[in-house]
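Dear U.,

Please find below the material for section 3 of the report. The protein was modelled together with fe (ii) ion; I have listed the sequence and SMILES used, followed by the predicted complex structure.
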Amino acid sequence: MAEIQIAPQEPAVRVTRSPLRGLTGLALAGASTAALLGVYAYAIEPLNIEFACVEMQINAPGRLPARGLRILQLADSHFCGGNRTARERKKIDRIRRLVDGLEYDLLIHTGDFIHYDSGLELVRELLAAVPAPRLGRYAVYGNHDYTHYNMLVTLPRMWRTFQNLETARNRGANPLGRVTLAASRLPRFVWYVRNTPLDGKPIGANDTDALSALLQEMDYQVLHNRSVHVIDPSLPLDIYLAGIDDLGQGTPHLADALAAIPAGEPAVLLSHNPDIIAHPALDRVDAVISGHTHGGQLQVPFWGPAHTQSAHLSRAQVSGQFSRGHTQFYVSRGIGEGIPLRFRTRPQVTLITLYG
Ligand SMILES: [Fe+2]
């Protein structure tokens, strides 16, 4: 009879994990993910400029070519120069490649050419990189073309404004209401920041005269509260292109911008800031082309755009196409940024084809 041998069993080893090791692992994974996202938002997405095509239909029968009027829009270049020069040159090179061989009728820049005066030479390089079309180059100014800001004090400034609003609210509230207001103050402040244009502190003027001289030299017409008649019977083409000065830092005047346009004539308005949507006389305009919002710059899960930079747009209108009444809007996410981060809001140049 065969002998059955039974191997001696090794005593079971009990492995115990320290909960601290698990937490450390989680923290390391979180920090690595945050670092990777930070690198992407700083070094990759802001340079990854897209070429966008949109179509806009306005009520202008017989005034626009059957193939549409092709308007190439640049917006919010925000050039700083200095230690950002190499990064900004990469953007210009990318745009040069994107528009190489492209056919368009009008070229526009809807403002925020510069962030600081030190970015002016890069503006020159950008404008030289995008060829002039047959029907001309037009521009309006943005707030940054007039002013530079300290954004580091934005939140304290907004907290002060919010507190002033709270004081007024508290004055009208009963004791129970005051307790409720105090208990909900922080989340309401978060909501306030989410839905209010960021309030950076203006700390100096940019040299708008030098920018004007450069634009003149580069054959750009600044539509400073005025319009031009864009006409070419051979296409056919017969519309008005108007521009309004920046709503925040400029001297905007919509009536002046539209004064030379006869009643009932088709009108397209360039306005750096899309908050022109709130102007009661805007229904005179068939289309508005804007920038300013940068698409919120960061599209955060469960939050949406980090900010809209607008007092009158809904969060869904932070970029892209929408309409109010018969007025069509297009808001570009722009090329550049002050705070050099973008997440799920790629910069863009846009070819807008306008149909009548
Ligand atoms: Fe801007």
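For the text of the report, you could mention the following: DSSP finds eight helices and 16 strands in the chain.

Regards,
Y.
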